[in-house]
Amino acid sequence: MSWNSFGRVLRFTTWGESHGPALGAVVDGCPPGLDLDEQQIQPFLDARRPGQSKYTTQRKEPDRVKILSGAFEGRTTGTPISLMIENTDQRSKDYSEIAQTYRPGHADYAYDAKYGFRDYRGGGRSSARETAARVAAGAVARLVIPEVSITAYVCELGGDAIDRDAINLSEIGNNPFFCPDAWAAKRWEALVDEARKNGSSLGAVVECVATGVRAGWGAPIYAKLDADIAAGMMGINAVKGVEIGDGFAAARLSGEENADAMRPGEDGPEFAANHAGGTAGGISTGQPVVCRVAFKPTSSILTPVPSITRDGEAADVRTKGRHDPCVGIRGVPVVEAMMALVLADHKLLHRAQCGG
Amino acid sequence: MSWNSFGRVLRFTTWGESHGPALGAVVDGCPPGLDLDEQQIQPFLDARRPGQSKYTTQRKEPDRVKILSGAFEGRTTGTPISLMIENTDQRSKDYSEIAQTYRPGHADYAYDAKYGFRDYRGGGRSSARETAARVAAGAVARLVIPEVSITAYVCELGGDAIDRDAINLSEIGNNPFFCPDAWAAKRWEALVDEARKNGSSLGAVVECVATGVRAGWGAPIYAKLDADIAAGMMGINAVKGVEIGDGFAAARLSGEENADAMRPGEDGPEFAANHAGGTAGGISTGQPVVCRVAFKPTSSILTPVPSITRDGEAADVRTKGRHDPCVGIRGVPVVEAMMALVLADHKLLHRAQCGG
Amino acid sequence: MSWNSFGRVLRFTTWGESHGPALGAVVDGCPPGLDLDEQQIQPFLDARRPGQSKYTTQRKEPDRVKILSGAFEGRTTGTPISLMIENTDQRSKDYSEIAQTYRPGHADYAYDAKYGFRDYRGGGRSSARETAARVAAGAVARLVIPEVSITAYVCELGGDAIDRDAINLSEIGNNPFFCPDAWAAKRWEALVDEARKNGSSLGAVVECVATGVRAGWGAPIYAKLDADIAAGMMGINAVKGVEIGDGFAAARLSGEENADAMRPGEDGPEFAANHAGGTAGGISTGQPVVCRVAFKPTSSILTPVPSITRDGEAADVRTKGRHDPCVGIRGVPVVEAMMALVLADHKLLHRAQCGG
Amino acid sequence: MSWNSFGRVLRFTTWGESHGPALGAVVDGCPPGLDLDEQQIQPFLDARRPGQSKYTTQRKEPDRVKILSGAFEGRTTGTPISLMIENTDQRSKDYSEIAQTYRPGHADYAYDAKYGFRDYRGGGRSSARETAARVAAGAVARLVIPEVSITAYVCELGGDAIDRDAINLSEIGNNPFFCPDAWAAKRWEALVDEARKNGSSLGAVVECVATGVRAGWGAPIYAKLDADIAAGMMGINAVKGVEIGDGFAAARLSGEENADAMRPGEDGPEFAANHAGGTAGGISTGQPVVCRVAFKPTSSILTPVPSITRDGEAADVRTKGRHDPCVGIRGVPVVEAMMALVLADHKLLHRAQCGG
């Protein structure tokens, strides 16, 4: 039940702060015999890596992962896999302001209220850099579910949604926004650019689709696939909402509209729709598992916001320094990683109880 | 990590099927010395109880709770509290149709795909009757957090939202919809009545507000208060979405709009707004903790929906029998219970690590 | 991580006090499709049942188990199995003495020190009656490992050990001591009779052997089969020691003496000895899994022992009433149950990670 | 429930293999604000360090610990503490023999049976080097319980026990055996020397005493202090038995002999004896918590033992290379560490449920 661990059978723990020497993850319970070396993890870290375009933070981190245990001669051994990523661009700067003043929307005040003090350098443990460790862990999880294909993308940025009819997954890599709609990507360039120049920030919605999930993963009642996805996604920095399938929109449909009719198929039922997002009663149905995740706008903005100091004095805060104008963008690889981790865990859980 | 348990320090397990002899919950880790007898649990079960108006299922269940352990001379002892609710209105009927045919939107097919067979009577373990056990457990959790006040209500039904300026919490008990807006409640009567008459169903959104939560509960990274709330709520039957604070709407705000400015207060900061819903970095800030939960429309409808039989043959399904035209309504006490369970657990967790 | 639960994938929770209305267990994670009805559980409860000879407590309890959930048409469904045993012989008596005075060797003082007060009736939660719930859970666990045969017996009573050359497992049921050596059983009659008449009590050592455990169950490091067996056994009332294989005697052997030589066999290695007790590195080797469990003498004795009252006054305690002169005897079915629960759990755990 | 984690609230996970680049531990749930730097951990690692006398393995490892996260300005922050120890003396040698042949008593065969293959270099994950990570974690745990004093020592080696009347804790550091009896230490020199020269090995019993544990830590039923100590100790390499208090000897006492009489004291009861080893009903009584741990003789010996190869062929095994003639000796700091980890965890658990 530790606080920095996630998962039931395939369980991982992350550690590390933004400005400490390193951060990492320990992945426990991974099946033995899977091909694993750094090259299988690195591409996912590269996708999340900062400083790749002007639309993300300018912190430069190579984010090179090292495997410290759990693999031998290129294969997983079944023992814990320790992954480490060294911090290299911990820009030495004066943190006195951030140390003494609470940045609104950040965890500064909450950490102090809880722990009495905090590692204030770059947000410490609450920094989005922690997600690098999850992305590394997620790359291991993918090895457990080779039959599943997971793709996430930004489907809405600053309130501007993609055209669902224009979704082309091969576009995702062609723009700096993980956007599957080329036209929307164009519009977002202007949006993010303006936010960046104004020192403002934008929110985003990330959608994630997992195909190839067989029917039967998940479990009643508190281990529903939906519940674990919700927990995993809501644990990502800046996330404030999670939907499965139609989510909140389903609450506006009638029972007839929301019904996913079935008809006999080759291989289990064929469904006429997927309002449910691939689960029923918390268990996968064989349809694509679909979730959407809402990222709030980055809390770090140049506009001064009234706040208080540690001593309880009034103080306006203006967050200088490097930051993402829209944290949702780099959230895409993190959402994918969490989906992989949940599904891999449930594959093993299902095998434990039901075999096969 | 069991599948039917929830919580970390205050941990509960539920058991039972819709048409078995009983259902119940075991609550473990409850502090000793709290006043507890059946009378403190029963009102919450009564609020959830079916058959109280024509807008909910006509199943008649007294839902009388019995405390089988963990209390002595009217006080909790610190040992596990076993709560049992006997099923009495297990109407004897012919289940042959439901046994052989998968009801779309229900867990029938998924359970069979997972377990190879299922207790089909009334949905078995996937029946919303299970939530009675959580409501009972939630009543115990409330004893752990007497300083916290938790109120949930339906804020949208069938796509018709309440007027936020008209919210009057004292109205919640005056209508069969747990609606805090008297005018909306009037409109919903017609809406639900029509759905009921047509054998259709409606979705709903439930909002839950917890006041009195001190700053400092919650924890990084995977035990964020937000993550546990999301997991708890998403584990409720028919729930497809969860938001904290502004949730998905926050993704459409700019950083300036979304900032919750602080100024010095008597007792910690005073906040100018609560877009964040009472948490930062997964830890409570002292503001009200606010979440919203989307319930899909009841899957049981009278309109025939194409489906398949266990043998893979095509078959139209029309769900006769007793059902809620809008399961979101009776979800209100369940949402409150899950909020109480999460907060009570985090109060104890915080005390474990940080004292106080 | 709840305090009254045990197991990782096959996880059970027990609840109940000696003099409450009932006690029970919830078994979660059981594979679906196993034949289960009360008749499969009852024989194990009958073996543990008190009042069957003059050598055990005279409390009369039918210990009838009821299955409240998790089985349908005689088979497990994969959902939690709720088992309940009603208390019937809660002899109404005056507990004022035990309520005010701490019985040495009992948990009275420790419970008060922890919880501030306690359910003093018959020991409350710390009563050995709780083990009835484990025995019921253990009967379910046995269904998960039909290929494994588990037999426990008393191998030493009041310091008088069985003759290992005289072990005959078919003798176990022929005497009231679960003793596999007919001559020792004879001697023990006199021993226990004398202790009973003197109001004294005796300790015992229970040995448990599980055959049919395939190589490969268990896991590094903190989930070693040995570690889980140790935890399970040490959680039984009155147990003060646990050994795997030669245990403490192994500490007196040389490396040569302790080596379990192997030679090629039909089906994996054949071992020349089993000093290790069936595990290496915490993982089963295919040899019989062997443990020994030390039960202290029953703390309830008629000889007055100096003690204190709740108010801190000196008071001699003489425990009247019904009690087992040697709790180790009725510990035999409990040890078997815990072994079954650990092995069944590890079978499923192994399947989760390694398949097959 | 991960396999390489231990603890409930203060939970740690270890990772690493004997011949990988490093090994380490992540300690989660540690209270904030405790003074922590490498200097507080290093002495415990130094005590466990190999190569310090001719009576332990000649592998030379500086075992320098690095704190990678969870501390800031010399204090714990409440976030996970990542500890890493680099392996430096991974002697490059030919492992072809050990790779192909199973060493009796080692985990070689069991690992292969479980995982299908293994990291055979130096025992991989099953190497006693893993215990360095626990010792580091234990040093952190000690910070949580400054009021508790934990001392372990070898009380029996090769069957030769110390004289209990000659115990002098200040002698422990004066000999290479952690022996509190100077005369016994003298005798053991000859014993171990002979074993070492003959390529044989010896077992040992380690006793651990924790004073300053207040009454009330621990919990029913499966989280008994005794059960967690048993699990923790039995998870140490080469351990085959655990006792609390008198342990197996208690099974040979009468109820009168085993009774720990109480009389009124200044500060709770004073006890006339401590047969129970400081617990009752799984909860501490305020007496010293005492356990004894049996270590088998090192399995690596020079005498050839019949075994088999991976291909199932017969092969005699003679374990060359560096090894401890008695692993129990270096087990002393590991036993202390596990005791600290269990007690610290239960202190926090107690605070969670009962405050104070």
From TrEMBL, chains A, B, C, D:
<keyword id="KW-0521">NADP</keyword>
<keyword id="KW-0456">Lyase</keyword>
<dbReference type="InterPro" id="IPR020541">
    <property type="entry name" value="Chorismate_synthase_CS"/>
</dbReference>
<dbReference type="InterPro" id="IPR035904">
    <property type="entry name" value="Chorismate_synth_AroC_sf"/>
</dbReference>
<protein>
    <recommendedName>
        <fullName>Chorismate synthase</fullName>
        <ecNumber>4.2.3.5</ecNumber>
    </recommendedName>
</protein>
<feature type="binding site">
    <location>
        <position position="48"/>
    </location>
    <ligand>
        <name>NADP(+)</name>
    </ligand>
</feature>
<dbReference type="GO" id="GO:0009073">
    <property type="term" value="P:aromatic amino acid family biosynthetic process"/>
</dbReference>
<comment type="function">
    <text>This reaction introduces a second double bond into the aromatic ring system.</text>
</comment>
<feature type="binding site">
    <location>
        <position position="322"/>
    </location>
    <ligand>
        <name>FMN</name>
    </ligand>
</feature>
<feature type="binding site">
    <location>
        <begin position="125"/>
        <end position="127"/>
    </location>
    <ligand>
        <name>FMN</name>
    </ligand>
</feature>
<comment type="pathway">
    <text>Metabolic intermediate biosynthesis; chorismate biosynthesis; chorismate from D-erythrose 4-phosphate and phosphoenolpyruvate: step 7/7.</text>
</comment>
<keyword id="KW-0028">Amino-acid biosynthesis</keyword>
<keyword id="KW-0285">Flavoprotein</keyword>
<dbReference type="GO" id="GO:0009423">
    <property type="term" value="P:chorismate biosynthetic process"/>
</dbReference>
<feature type="binding site">
    <location>
        <begin position="296"/>
        <end position="300"/>
    </location>
    <ligand>
        <name>FMN</name>
    </ligand>
</feature>
<dbReference type="InterPro" id="IPR000453">
    <property type="entry name" value="Chorismate_synth"/>
</dbReference>
<dbReference type="GO" id="GO:0005829">
    <property type="term" value="C:cytosol"/>
</dbReference>
<keyword id="KW-0274">FAD</keyword>
<dbReference type="Pfam" id="PF01264">
    <property type="entry name" value="Chorismate_synt"/>
</dbReference>
<feature type="binding site">
    <location>
        <position position="281"/>
    </location>
    <ligand>
        <name>FMN</name>
    </ligand>
</feature>
<keyword id="KW-0288">FMN</keyword>
<feature type="binding site">
    <location>
        <begin position="237"/>
        <end position="238"/>
    </location>
    <ligand>
        <name>FMN</name>
    </ligand>
</feature>
<keyword id="KW-0057">Aromatic amino acid biosynthesis</keyword>
<dbReference type="GO" id="GO:0008652">
    <property type="term" value="P:amino acid biosynthetic process"/>
</dbReference>
<dbReference type="GO" id="GO:0004107">
    <property type="term" value="F:chorismate synthase activity"/>
</dbReference>
<comment type="similarity">
    <text>Belongs to the chorismate synthase family.</text>
</comment>
<dbReference type="GO" id="GO:0010181">
    <property type="term" value="F:FMN binding"/>
</dbReference>
<feature type="binding site">
    <location>
        <position position="54"/>
    </location>
    <ligand>
        <name>NADP(+)</name>
    </ligand>
</feature>
<comment type="subunit">
    <text>Homotetramer.</text>
</comment>
